[in-house]
Amino acid sequence: MSDEIRINRQPNPGVQQPVARQETAAQAETEAAGGPSKMPWVILAAIVLVLIVLGVTFRDKLFTGTGGEKSAMNATKPSGYQAVFLTNGQVYFGKLSDVESSYVTLKDIYYLQVGPAQGSGSATNTPQNITLVKLGQELHGPVDEMHISRSQILFYEDLKAEGNVVSAIMKDKAAGQGK
User: Which residues are within 8 A (CB) of 178 and not within 5 positions of it... i.e. 6 or more apart?
Assistant: First the structure.
């Protein structure tokens, strides 16, 4: 019975069939040398290590934008005043502090007041008169200091000393109105 020829039958799952193995010369050399080459992994690990060291070393300059040299944009002298833009559309100008706490402090505060231009008779397409007002002159007489929740601040920006708002603040202070 062992001389029978079996046609269209699946091989017995318990019996392992011989598989022909073909080797290239390079595979034979690497196996003879102790396995596949690990050089690409060593190079990759070295590159990752260098990137991590560079990232840790320069993280402040990468993520805060405070690079070593000042660019032409930062060459202007800051005034010490900031414009604070709130979520309700209001903008205040003043000296900002405690920006890391949950409530920031704004002192020496000014804001813009928009009204119709004087001498305009028509209500349509009326030019608007924009004036800078010192906080504290309102009916309720607030103190010239504000504590603003950080969640209500969209963003703030430093004002240049030669900007229009800072120039108007300096003129107001020189006139003795802004104390």
Answer: 108, 110, 134, 169, 172
CA distance 130 to 116: 8
Tens-place pLDDT, residues 56-92: 887 777 666 545 444 444 455 677 899 999 999 999 9
Which structure tokens are listed for 37?
Answer: 């080459």
Report the CATH number that the domain containing residue 95 is assigned in CATH.
2.30.30.100
Name the nearest CA neighbour of 30 among 15, 40, 44: 40
125 falls within a domain: yes
Question: How far apart, in whole angstroms, are the C-alpha atoms of residue 81 and residue 177?
Answer: 18
Q: Kindly report the backbone phi and psi dihedral angles of residue 151, in degrees, each rounded to the nearest multiple of 5, phi listed first.
A: -70, -15
Q: Are residues 33 and 95 in the same domain?
A: no
High-pLDDT (> 90) share of the chain, %: 23
pTM metric for this prediction: 0.52
